[in-house]
Amino acid sequence: MLLALLILAPLLSTSYEVKTPPLDTPWTYTAGTDPWPEYPRPQQVRDRWQSLNGIWSWRNGAADELNGPVPTGNLGTDVLVPSCLESGLSGVMANNTGNGTILHSWYQTTFNVTEDWQGENILINFGAVDYQATVFVNGQQVVQHTGGYLRFWADITSAVKVGQSNELVVFVFDPTDSEPYVVPIGKQTLNPSHIFYTPCTGIWQQVFIEPVPADHIEWIDLDGDMNGQVNITVHSANNSSSSVTVKVWADDGQVAATGTGSSDSPIVFEVANPKLWSPESPTLYNITVTLGNDTVATYTGFRTVGKGMVNGMMRPLLNGEFLFTFGPLDQGFWPDGIYTPPNYEAMVFDLKTLKSLGMNMIRKHIKVEMDLFYHACDTMGFWVIQDQPALNIQNGAEPNSTQQDVFNSQLFELVEKHRSFPSICTWVIYNEGWGQVGAPELYLAPMVRSLDPTRLIDATTGWNWHGAGDYVDNHHYSEPQCGTPFYSIASSPYDPNYIGFQGEFGGIGNNVSIDHLWNVQQAINGINQTYELDATVEIWNYRAHLILDELRQQTEMFACSGAVWTQTTDVEGEVNGFLTYDRRILRPNITQWQSDIYALYQAAADRGGRIIISTCL
Ligand SMILES: *[C@@H]1O[C@H](CO)[C@@H](O)[C@H](O)[C@H]1NC(C)=O
Ligand SMILES: *[C@@H]1O[C@H](CO)[C@@H](O)[C@H](O)[C@H]1NC(C)=O
Ligand SMILES: *[C@@H]1O[C@H](CO)[C@@H](O)[C@H](O)[C@H]1NC(C)=O
Ligand SMILES: *[C@@H]1O[C@H](CO)[C@@H](O)[C@H](O)[C@H]1NC(C)=O
Ligand SMILES: *[C@@H]1O[C@H](CO)[C@@H](O)[C@H](O)[C@H]1NC(C)=O
Ligand SMILES: *[C@@H]1O[C@H](CO)[C@@H](O)[C@H](O)[C@H]1NC(C)=O
Ligand SMILES: *[C@@H]1O[C@H](CO)[C@@H](O)[C@H](O)[C@H]1NC(C)=O
Ligand SMILES: *[C@@H]1O[C@H](CO)[C@@H](O)[C@H](O)[C@H]1NC(C)=O
Ligand SMILES: *[C@@H]1O[C@H](CO)[C@@H](O)[C@H](O)[C@H]1NC(C)=O
Ligand SMILES: *[C@@H]1O[C@H](CO)[C@@H](O)[C@H](O)[C@H]1NC(C)=O
Ligand SMILES: *[C@@H]1O[C@H](CO)[C@@H](O)[C@H](O)[C@H]1NC(C)=O
Ligand SMILES: *[C@@H]1O[C@H](CO)[C@@H](O)[C@H](O)[C@H]1NC(C)=O
User: Fold this and answer.
1) Ligand 11 in contact with 528 (CB < 6 A)?
2) Please, are residues 553 and 607 in contact by the beta-carbon 8 Å criterion?
3) What is the C-alpha separation between 394 and 179, in angstroms, rounded?
4) Domain Glycosyl hydrolases family 2 sugar binding, which positions (predicted)?
5) Ligand 2 within 6 A of CB of 68
6) What is the rounded distance in angstroms from the CA atom of residue 446 to the CA atom of residue 96?
């Protein structure tokens, strides 16, 4: 009987189909089985690559299996890669609530390496795997990576068979907030409730392989500033002795400047009179980087982020001028994909919506997106405030020293792996005191600063401020307290040595019919926890107008330098988005919002800020 079952097992494997999620989007059933065909790494583009996205097999695992034999062959259940196992798009839609049912997973697929890659090194790249991935190629462990939001790669040359089929197996461990684990998870929880949502488990960003010379570029740190200075460090895989050539291309197809030097140390040179990058004019320059026989395409935007006194107030500066930033709290959750947008078009739909309302900033909230998202922000023009994903704080969990070290190292890895996106202008370390025991930001902010001196640091957005970083950042619902001499109890008083900022406000809600709601009873029961519910969209817009007008007055009277409205979309039981969770209803009266946002920019301009001319206004 047992033998018969074992023999039948592969035949019993389920074939992939989208599982009907509690709510879908316009893209749920068009995402297909060849997902995310776009080149995944826009800052380091090579001509040759092969996507490994698509249908893989999956089964539940157990902790001790990592020490046993690596499974081979079809694991029984089809799964779409990339996706979260909890998502309808995964084809699995695992119910991972309670104590967690998919703490451990095995993934399996096969891939071929064509003969024309013979003699080259082969790299495998993962965009992100939540939370810990152990990767095997033909049974040989090639890499283990911890941290659910960060790309990693491995040289798999010695494990790969060229011209033949190769088996790729990944063991995933994802504790989310199960006890006793305390790891960076952002808004994920095994017990969703109102502002905490369904978790994401597994391989949720793109996977691909590529051939490279043995002597190759591993990654690039790149910064362009308002004076045209290019500062680039080309990290080589193998302490290369080859020389590096960097060419910056002007938009007329001519070389604007060339830098040369060696790998693994900064090469600094200048482009004369560059067109600067800003949210309203997001000019990017293409760059090619050559190390020996390896050439990659990359790009930068010339801009300088800083702070300084403008008319007696500490202000965030872009290219030497005060820029008032306004934009949403952006969670990046999807009803059909959870952490993974259904496709590129869907991901950019959110950004286009924000742009059409006149926003120039996004606070990416305790989540890290795929590189394609930041590339879209670079291209479309957003000042991105990037949060480090918060530690699990459910059940009153607090990090011990080991867990604090893990948080710290993932924070540094976040900075190191995203420091070349021109749109990212501010790093956030802690959100509302979550996982912040004592004041670790007093040593973390200087460490982030020394890793990356080219950006601002918002050490604590909301609550528990001890003077670290560049901002004093208030959270208050629904009305703002932005750089004001009044503040509510959990916040800090405005301090004129810091940038006055409203890291969260708004959050007003408007319930919708069940066909636009995340149809899970626990979530629907939580809708009444919304800070404020407005009976109709007209009332919601009326309230928004009053609240935005308060922000305008605070910008005129006090030291308000920017604000974050909660939020881009509804998420599960939160009904306070510009868009509903399914992206089918847009609540803002576009004309009204454009004019209210423009009034903010005007108020800031009247106090020495720059006026934002956006084509949509
Ligand atoms: C998931 O499992 C939990 C715990 O067993 C259960 O209470 C809940 O109803 C399930 N959710 C769904 C959507 O099936
Ligand atoms: C989770 O585990 C704890 C401790 O083992 C148990 O008391 C609790 O009932 C479990 N909860 C669920 C939803 O299974
Ligand atoms: C690999 O190549 C073999 C032989 O050409 C073919 O049968 C197999 O389907 C290929 N596998 C994949 C994953 O493309
Ligand atoms: C590193 O470089 C040395 C000298 O060029 C070469 O012999 C060796 O194969 C390289 N190692 C790898 C892993 O590429
Ligand atoms: C170039 O960047 C490196 C960090 O990658 C930094 O240490 C160095 O000071 C920078 N050089 C200049 C001239 O800005
Ligand atoms: C490169 O050099 C560093 C420092 O000398 C050394 O620690 C490291 O092992 C070298 N890496 C390789 C791949 O040879
Ligand atoms: C930069 O390169 C991209 C990709 O090759 C191309 O689409 C774009 O037109 C180039 N931009 C400029 C300004 O040359
Ligand atoms: C570059 O490629 C040429 C031709 O294949 C080869 O002779 C040379 O050794 C390579 N150079 C490096 C640095 O790998
Ligand atoms: C922190 O807690 C984890 C999980 O319980 C444990 O494995 C680790 O040893 C603890 N570290 C310290 C320093 O207590
Ligand atoms: C929100 O609307 C849903 C269905 O449209 C309804 O079931 C729920 O009771 C409403 N909640 C509140 C707080 O209005
Ligand atoms: C919200 O609704 C739930 C379920 O309908 C109810 O149990 C809870 O008491 C309500 N909470 C408030 C604050 O009204
Ligand atoms: C939107 O706002 C504008 C400007 O306040 C107003 O004239 C218009 O009537 C509003 N549109 C709707 C549909 O409420």
Assistant:
1) yes
2) no
3) 10
4) 105-178
5) no
6) 38
What whole-number distance in Å separates Cα of residue 283 and Cα of residue 276?
6
- Locate the ligand 4 atom nearest the alpha carbon of residue 215 and give its number: 14
Going by C-alpha positions, the residue among 266, 203, 282 that lies closest to residue 231 is 266
Residue 14 has what pLDDT?
Answer: 63
Give, for ligand 1, the residue of 97, 193, 522 to mutate: max count of ligand atoms closer than 8 Å to Cβ: 97
pLDDT of 232 reads 98
Dist. CA 214 → ligand 4 center (Å): 6
Q: d(Cα 301, Cα 285) in Å, to the nearest integer? A: 6
Q: What is the C-alpha to C-alpha distance for residues 502 and 471, in angstroms, rounded to an integer?
A: 10
pLDDT of amino acid 397: 84
Q: Cα of 588 to ligand 10 centre, how many Å?
A: 20
> Where do the domains of the chain lie, and which CATH numbers do they carry?
13-212 (2.60.120.260), 217-292 (2.60.40.10), 305-390+402-606 (3.20.20.80)
pLDDT tens column, 121-135: 999 999 999 999 999
Return the H-helix or E-strand segment holding 552.
helix 537-557
CA distance 128 to 82: 9
Give pLDDT, residue 238. 86
pTM reported for the whole predicted model: 0.95
Count of beta carbons in the 10 Å neighbourhood of residue 611:
12
The number of the ligand 10 atom at minimal distance from the alpha carbon of 527 is 13
- Return phi, psi of residue 140, to 5°: -100, 125
Q: Quick check: CB of 268 below 6 Å from ligand 5?
A: yes
The answer to whether the CB of 286 is under 6 A from ligand 7 is yes
Instruction: Output the CA 193–ligand 11 centroid distance in Å.
Output: 12
Ligand 1 atom at minimum distance from 98 CA: 4
Does residue 285 line the site of ligand 3, with CB under 6 A? Answer: no
Q: Which of 116, 212, 293 to mutate to test the pocket of ligand 8 (most atoms within 8 A of CB)?
A: 293
Place of tokens 């301090």: 495
Nearest CA to ligand 8 atom 10: 293
Tell whether ligand 10 has an atom less than 6 A from the beta carbon of residue 521. no
Q: Which residues of the chain have pLDDT under 50?
A: 1-12, 615-617
The pair phi, psi for residue 108, each rounded to 5°, is -150, 140
**And the tokens for 545?**
């107008």
Structure tokens at 336: 């059909």
